[in-house]
Amino acid sequence: MNIAIVEDDASVRRQLSVYIDRYYEGNKQRYQIDEYEDGDLIVEAYSAKYDLVFLDIQMKRMDGLKTAKRLRALDEDVFLIFVTNLANYAIKGYSVNAFDFVLKPVNELMLRTLLQRVEKKLTARASVYITLPTEKGMMRLDVREITYVETNNHLSVIHTDKGDFTLRESMKNIEELLAGQSFFRCNNCYLVNLARVDRVEKSELMIGSRALAISRPRYRAFMEALTRYIGGMKA
């Protein structure tokens, strides 16, 4: 569990950190905590690595709601929990899909319950993420949302349900990044998510309305990989 605490009151940051330490009983292999004194600091440094962010709503430079909106633009899946003195402020947090809120002074039992709920959600989600450098900063992407990757003039274009992202990365590096997932080359230009293949027609595969060529040298290996994937899904 990677956790961030964004709070301008040092005593509250300390209290949250101590309660989290107690919850994990000192097992540092199970969690990591980073602390930020204001919202602008986490926004500037955000790398979409966090599972959970505690956000104070009222901060001096960037309030919690504005911070949450900036984080949501980079990471749709991180759990946001607001920390506040007034419950009516926290209600506004649901506009940025906040998971919950805690009132100050923080109750340790309530915090433990929240951590348990977040862990259950993370276990149920069971997604695999990669982190991509974009013009807006580092963005975390669920690999299930990737349809295919394409090489284009020494650049790689990652086609996803959220749009296309162009990176200065080689296809080899991206293929290594996605190793162990359901991706396979259908030719030198395309790395395909086998889960998103709708059908194969002669020497082409279809992902929605997009047709991608399957090269002759790779045809047999690609079809074997697709067959194994489908067989595994049925099993």
Q: How would you explain this protein's 3D organization?
A:
This protein has helices spanning about 10-25, 40-45, 65-75, 85-90, 110-125, 170-175, 215-235; strands spanning about 1-5, 30-35, 50-55, 80-85, 100-105, 130-135, 135-140, 145-150, 155-160, 165, 185, 190-195, 200, 205, 210-215. The chain is an alpha/beta fold. The protein folds into two domains: about 1-125, Response regulator (Rossmann fold), CATH 3.40.50; about 140-235, LytTr DNA-binding domain (OB fold (Dihydrolipoamide Acetyltransferase, E2P)). The strands form four sheets. Strands 2-1-3-4-5 form a five-stranded parallel β-sheet, sandwiched between helices. Strands 10-9-8-12-11 form a five-stranded antiparallel β-sheet, sandwiched between helices. Helix 1 links the parallel strand 1 and strand 2. The longest helix has 19 residues, at about 215-235. The protein is elongated and about 65 Å long.
